[in-house]
Amino acid sequence: DTGVSQNPRHKITKRGQNVTFRCDPISEHNRLYWYRQTLGQGPEFLTYFQNEAQLEKSRLLSDRFSAERPKGSFSTLEIQRTEQGDSAMYLCASSLARPPTDTQYFGPGTRLTVL
Amino acid sequence: RKEVEQDPGPFNVPEGATVAFNCTYSNSASQSFFWYRQDCRKEPKLLMSVYSSGNEDGRFTAQLNRASQYISLLIRDSKLSDSATYLCVVNVPSSKRFGAGTRLTVKP
Predict the structure, then answer these.
(1) Do B86 and B71 meet the contact criterion of CB atoms below 8 Å apart?
(2) What number of other Cβ atoms are within 10 A of residue B26's Cβ?
(3) Of A43, A102, A105, Cβ closest to residue B91
(4) Is there a cis peptide before residue A8, judged by omega within 30 degrees of 0?
(5) From A15, A27, A83, B19, which residue has the greatest number of CB atoms within 10 Å?
(6) Mean pLDDT of residues grouped by 10 in chain B (108 residues)?
(7) With an 8 Å Cβ cutoff, is B45 touching chain A?
(8) Which residues of chain B have a CB within 8 Å of the CB of A53?
(9) Confidence at residue A100, expressed as pLDDT on a 0 to 100 scale
(10) Do B90 and B28 touch, CB atoms closer than 8 A?
(11) Which string of b and e fits B56-79 if b means at least 16 CB within 10 Å?
(12) By the 8 A CB rule, do B65 and B73 touch?
């Protein structure tokens, strides 16, 4: 399977714990995006990378959230001191940026439940 | 005002019906536009890009009106398998904005 993969698929944690998610994009894609989606809403943009550079971060991304893409391939999203409001589906997408379009392909997501 | 707004739905239609969804966006610098489909508890999947001249892909037709800042999706001859949530996506410089989605249920 050469699509976007995400691990783990599900994570249950207790409030206050740290969690880390991983995304492996489609191999030749240079852009990688993170989104958060809650029930009944569309995906909300969190941050994106072009190669290893983090080019934009949403105001939604509090100081407890950090993302990295150290070698321009896979990425990790870490949430520190999780809160119940962090419970959501975390989606990763990748694209091969070709202006003016930038078609993104999504991974299956990591569903986080904070107890 | 949200950056991307969609018809609230849900739309419940019989098989064979024609259904249309609209989406408005607020950022005039938006560069490109897409419709994605999302099935329950699955990831969004690209349905089609939306071009200025309008484009068609089988039973699906997408149109863009830059002056009025809206895009539309028309589904003809609805199938049961079209039941899903349809997400409008707008590219703004360096980012993407999704609408909340419109839920479609096609019934026998």
Answers:
(1) no
(2) 14
(3) A102
(4) yes
(5) B19
(6) 85 96 90 92 92 89 93 97 96 82 95
(7) yes
(8) none
(9) 60
(10) no
(11) eeeebbbbbeeeeebbbbebeebe
(12) no
Residue with tokens 């999706």: B73
Mutate to test the interface with B, among A45, A95, A110 (most CBs of B within 10 A): A45
Quickly tell me which residue has 């934009």 as its tokens. Answer: A56
pLDDT at A1 over 60: no
Q: What is the per-residue pLDDT across A56-86, written as a single tens digit (0 to 9) for each? A: 888 878 899 999 999 889 999 999 999 999 9
C-beta of residue B32 within 8 angstroms of C-beta of residue B96: no
* Of the candidates A89, A83, A70, A31, the residue with the CA atom closest to the CA atom of residue B91: A31
And the tokens for A76? 């990790």
Q: Read off the pLDDT of residues A19-67 as tens digits, 9 standing for 90 and up.
A: 999 999 999 899 999 999 998 889 999 999 999 999 888 887 889 999 9
Query: CA B68, CA A44: separation in Å to the nearest integer?
Result: 24
- CA A67, CA A95: separation in Å to the nearest integer? 17
Q: List the beta bridge partners of residue B92.
A: B95
- CB of B27 within 8 Å of a chain A CB? The answer is no
Q: List Cα–Cα distances, A79 to A15, A17, A64, A114, in angstroms.
A: 11, 8, 6, 11
Token look-up 């959501």 returns A88
Whether the ω angle into residue A43 lies within 30 degrees of 0, i.e. cis, is: no
Whole-angstrom Cα distance, residue A110 to residue A90? 5
One-letter amino acid for residue B65 of the chain: N
